[in-house]
Amino acid sequence: QLVGAILASCTAMGKVPAQTHDLMMRGGFEYDAKKDRYFMRGEAVWDVQKRIEKGVKQMAVPAANLEEFLQKEEKMVDELLEKLKKKASAAGKPVADADDDEEAEEAPKKKKRAAEAEEEEEEDKAAKKAKKKAKKAAEEEEEEEE
Questions:
Q1: Distance of CA 2 to CAs 14, 19, 71, 130, 145, Å?
Q2: CA 52, CA 46: separation in Å to the nearest integer?
Q3: What spatial distance separates the first Cα and last Cα of the chain, rounded to whole Å?
Q4: Structure pTM?
């Protein structure tokens, strides 16, 4: 509250003592020596830090550029996998040690293929039943006509 009062009152004042100046600079203000005034130019450091911490809790990856993002994302995913593996092993569940992404993807593909094969078999059976019913109906109609 004191910081807010200082910052609000300093927008129209000249240079302040070094400690207050430092606080204002971290708070997003810039000092214009020509005009001898402080102007709000950016975001406060503590607001940025709070937003980053909130994002990390939501599994976001804060980064300044793409390379940094990719490195931090990989690190975060590895840490998360280790944590989940420890949790699963503590619960007594089997943990597969698939270091390669391709190996981990093969199992779901096999399950999908098996499910697709079962669906095709069911469709074939349904089609055969429909054909049999159609033949019986046609035969019954022929018998009735005779």
A1: 19, 14, 40, 82, 102
A2: 10
A3: 101
A4: 0.46
Question: Could you give the 3-state DSSP secondary structure of residue 30?
Answer: strand
How many C-beta atoms lie closer than 10 Å to residue 55's C-beta?
12
**For residues 121 and 127, what is the distance between their CA atoms, to the nearest angstrom?**
10
R_g of the chain, CA atoms, integer Å: 34
Look-up: residue for tokens 């203000």? 29
Half-sphere exposure of 94 (CA within 13 A, CB side): 2
CA dihedral sign, ordered 92, 98, 101, 107: negative
Dihedral angle sign, alpha carbons of residues 44, 50, 54, 57: positive
Express each pLDDT in 123-136 by its tens digit. 788 788 888 888 88
The pLDDT of residue 110: 67
Q: Would you say residue 13 has pLDDT above 90?
A: no
Residue 78 has pLDDT above 90, yes or no: yes
Mean pLDDT of the chain: 80
